[in-house]
Amino acid sequence: MNVTTTHIDCWDHSSATAILTKLLAGLGETRLANTPSYELVDTLRNRLEHPYIVILDGAGQIADDNVLKTLHKIPEVTLMCIVNEYRPFLRSHEMGIESWLEEYTDIEFEAYTEAQLQTIFEGRIEHGVADGVVPDEIMAFLSEGDRQPSAQRLRGARPWHGHCHAGRRARGRPRDREGIDLHDVLEVDP
């Protein structure tokens, strides 16, 4: 079976047009920046012949709920919405969207360990900050204790306690044939 996947960083691509353009790019389609969203949706629907797994990383940053609704209604699309806090993400959407999001499988990830956070921060500092800008003491502080307030200030820091919300409506078929279940999720290093 041919399955296409596209990962979208919603911090960088939060508008409906940006998300749809990235999805079409994942299918080898290019569009002008000023292409209307409805044309992008029509092209996406017409191009899809096989399952398309859409990973929306930082889905809480999406500016327009309608793009979630649109993607949810396309039978070939399976959404994976990655968010830091699942319940606030659900509550931030209109009732109709919230109800079908609740049907998706909620996958909660374990908290990062201090050693994992240290490695993550070191990599970001090594590649994104000039030498000596972040002292070793700050690195140690960020990777221990109550890390959330400190780490949230580092834009783009991955959650050490996050959720991946994935799914597809059953449409009369068993879940294992239609969407993603827990057996499809692989553990990865941060």
UniProtKB/TrEMBL annotation:
Domain of life: Archaea
InterPro entries assigned to the protein according to its UniProt record, in alphabetical order: P-loop_NTPase
Protein name, per record: Orc1/cdc6 family replication initiation protein
Taxonomic source organism: Natrinema zhouii
